[in-house]
């Protein structure tokens, strides 16, 4: 047993060192490898040090799991990464809940502490499992991305939450007769995972995925308390902390509190507010004109939004950017924290299109760069460049940190139509004197722009 | 191991987590999520132990837990590697 615990500590150290190497893209890949070695050590140590393990069951489970995991990992498109992470969170939470449930039916040391941790672990794990599958369904389009709300929803959630506490207490205190309460606890934990996730809109999914990521860590740590296993406790705590930090960053990026995201059902409520009634006069430009403006520029900042990924235009913008760089211009990319569908999503999409990571700047790094920027190219982004967030106290996005593209000499905005963004509000930027609209599908527009630049 | 000990470990691990994760740049937040996902697959250790606990129900629960956790571990590390491979310098 001593050796097993030493192996778990070693695994935890390797996880920590692995995450530490994620502090730079240069060392990140080796960090991932180090963490996976840690996992291998933990698994092997467990296999060799416990007696009476059912090796046949373990082998079958591992083979099936490895095939499914590898298949997803190889096949998944980078645009689908949020769904993939969502469903993996679900599997992690599910695994923790199942382990705790197995322990419930055959407790090693039946004590109040043990059954309390089982109840917590089963509750968090099951909630993560069902919540993640709803998030997956929304992102994949199986379920409407719109918030699903109905009258009395909050009261229902409150009732379920109270029942869960009641069932949890009875599961712990009833000893041998606790089974009905335990099953009830599992059922209601599954239900609340669903009812808490369905009212959250598609645009808020980055927060939800981060939060479920955190829960999957908490579930693993809780299972660690059930088994009195340091390896699970440390790893679970790391993941729980990671998810919580990312959740916080996403909330800040949208200037919303966590409570507002979970209970606010934004997207439905805000369609009536805002200044959508006000008409904005815009100037539009052709790709030839845009090419001429870019030719005269020295410093260019590209602002990609999720619309760019939807149009599959990451490669097209990289080709245009390469061409401009070869003309001796400086090109940077400005990435807003909520530019994609999960934290850091846009960076991965651009890395896939071979954009060097040194050119990808985050909000704090890039905003001073707009001061002396000649042309900002806004592609499929809207709310994150809306100056109303800075001054219009009546705007739903007031206070949200934005990219200061309007400080550039010229702003080229590509959009398909004049439809407002997710928050359902008009963007005053489009009417500014230094803004030119270049309408059309992002990919087609960039291909034309590339051609026009070559022909100059 | 007594209760106070494992709570100590838990609390200290949270602090270590906050310390190292705040140093991960936004550019790598997606790989951080998928990588930490793989790490939460540490539940596989519990799943392996669960197969031992005995009883038909326990074995079935253990089997499904092993499958779920392995999906997490294998898929998580592989997809993270696939993403990190794409981050290149000029």
Walk me through what this model shows:
The complex is a heterodimer of chains A (456) and B (90). Chain A is α/β, with parallel strands linked by helices and 456 residues long. Chain A folds into 3 domains: 1-71; 76-229 and 241-272, no CATH class; 287-455, Rossmann fold, CATH 3.40.50.1220. Chain A has 17 helices and 6 strands. The longest helix of chain A has 29 residues, at 112-140. Residues 268-276 of chain A have low confidence and may be disordered. Chain B has 90 residues and is an all-alpha fold. Chain B has a domain at 28-86. Chain B is 80% helix and 0% strand. The longest helix of chain B has 31 residues, at 56-86. The model of chain B has no long low-confidence stretch (mean pLDDT 92). The interface between A and B is large, with 114 and 79 residues.
Please give the share of residues in helix of chain A: 55-70%
* Total individual domains of chain A: 3
Q: Segments of chain B where pLDDT lies below 50 for 5+ residues?
A: none
Structural class of chain A: alpha/beta
Q: What's the number of helices of chain B?
A: 4
Number of strands of chain A: 6
The helix/strand series of chain A, from N terminus to C terminus, equals: HHHHHHHHHHHEHHEHEHEHEEH
Shape descriptor of chain A reads elongated
Order of helices and strands of chain B: HHHH
Mean pLDDT of chain B: 92
Question: Characteristics of this structure?
Answer:
heterodimer, A: Rossmann fold, 3 domains, 6 strands, 7% strand, B: 90 residues, mainly alpha, flat
Itemize the secondary structure elements and their pairings.
The complex is a heterodimer of chains A (456) and B (90).
Chain A: H1 2-20, H2 25-49, H3 55-75, H4 81-105, H5 112-140, H6 153-173, H7 179-197, H8 205-227, H9 230-254, H10 258-264, H11 287-296, E1 299-304, H12 306-310, H13 314-326, E2 330-335, H14 345-352, E3 360-362, H15 363-366, E4 375-379, H16 388-391, E5 410-415, E6 435-439, H17 442-455
Parallel strand pairs in A: 1-2, 1-4, 2-3, 4-5, 5-6
Helix pairs in contact in A: 1-2, 1-9, 4-5, 4-8, 5-6, 5-7, 5-8, 6-7, 8-9, 11-17, 13-17
Chain B: H1 3-21, H2 29-40, H3 43-52, H4 56-86
Helix pairs in contact in B: 2-4, 3-4
């Amino acid at each position: 047993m001593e050796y097993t615990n030493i192996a778990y500590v070693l695994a935890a150290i390797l996880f920590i060192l692995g995450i530490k190497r994620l502090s730079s893209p240069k060392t990140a890949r080796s960090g991932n490898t180090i963490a996976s070695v840690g996992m291998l050590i933990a698994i092997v140590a467990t296999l060799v040090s416990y007696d009476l393990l059912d090796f046949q069951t373990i082998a079958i489970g591992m083979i099936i799991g490895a095939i499914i995991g590898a298949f997803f990992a190889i096949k998944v498109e980078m645009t689908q990464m949020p769904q993939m992470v969502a469903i993996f969170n679900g599997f992690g939470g599910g695994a923790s809940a199942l382990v705790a449930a197995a322990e419930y039916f055959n407790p090693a040391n039946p004590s109040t502490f043990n059954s309390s941790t089982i109840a917590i672990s089963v509750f968090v794990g099951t909630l993560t499992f069902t919540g993640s599958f709803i998030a997956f369904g929304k992102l994949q389009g199986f379920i409407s991305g719109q918030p699903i709300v109905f009258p009395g929803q909050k009261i229902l959630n409150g009732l379920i939450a109270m029942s869960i506490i009641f069932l949890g207490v009875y599961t712990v205190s009833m000893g041998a007769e606790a089974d009905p309460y335990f099953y009830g606890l599992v059922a209601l934990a599954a239900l609340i995972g669903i009812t808490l996730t369905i009212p959250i809109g598609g645009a808020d999914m980055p927060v939800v995925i981060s939060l479920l990521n955190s829960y999957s860590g908490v579930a693993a740590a809780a299972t660690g308390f059930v088994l009195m296993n340091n390896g699970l406790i440390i790893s679970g705590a790391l993941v729980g902390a990671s998810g919580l930090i990312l959740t916080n960053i996403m909330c800040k990026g949208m200037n919303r509190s966590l409570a507002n995201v979970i209970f606010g059902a934004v997207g439905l409520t805000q369609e009536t507010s805002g200044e959508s009634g006000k008409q904005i006069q815009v100037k539009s430009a052709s790709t030839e004109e845009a090419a001429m403006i870019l030719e005269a520029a020295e410093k260019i900042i590209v602002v990609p939004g999720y619309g760019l990924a939807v149009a599959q235009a990451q490669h097209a913008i990289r080709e245009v950017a390469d061409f401009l760089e070869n003309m001796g211009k400086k090109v940077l990319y400005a990435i807003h924290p909520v530019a994609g569908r999960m934290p850091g999503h846009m960076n991965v999409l651009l890395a896939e299109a071979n954009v060097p990571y040194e050119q990808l700047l985050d909000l704090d790094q890039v905003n001073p760069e707009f001061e002396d920027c000649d042309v900002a190219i806004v592609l499929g982004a809207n709310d994150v460049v809306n100056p109303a967030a800075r001054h219009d106290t009546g705007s739903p996005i007031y206070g949200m940190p934005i990219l200061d593209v309007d400080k550039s000499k010229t702003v080229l905005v590509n959009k398909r139509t004049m439809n407002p963004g997710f928050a359902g509000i008009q963007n005053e930027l489009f009417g500014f004197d230094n803004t030119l609209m270049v309408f059309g599908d992002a990919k087609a527009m960039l291909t034309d722009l590339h051609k026009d630049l070559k022909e100059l | 191991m007594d209760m106070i000990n494992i709570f100590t470990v838990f609390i200290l691990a949270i602090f270590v987590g906050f310390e190292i994760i705040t140093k991960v740049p936004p550019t790598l937040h997606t790989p951080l999520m998928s990588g930490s996902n793989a790490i939460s697959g540490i539940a596989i250790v519990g799943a392996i132990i669960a197969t031992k606990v005995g009883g038909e129900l326990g074995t079935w629960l253990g089997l499904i837990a092993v499958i779920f956790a392995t999906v997490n571990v294998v898929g998580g590390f592989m997809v993270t590697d696939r993403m990190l491979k794409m981050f290149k310098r000029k």
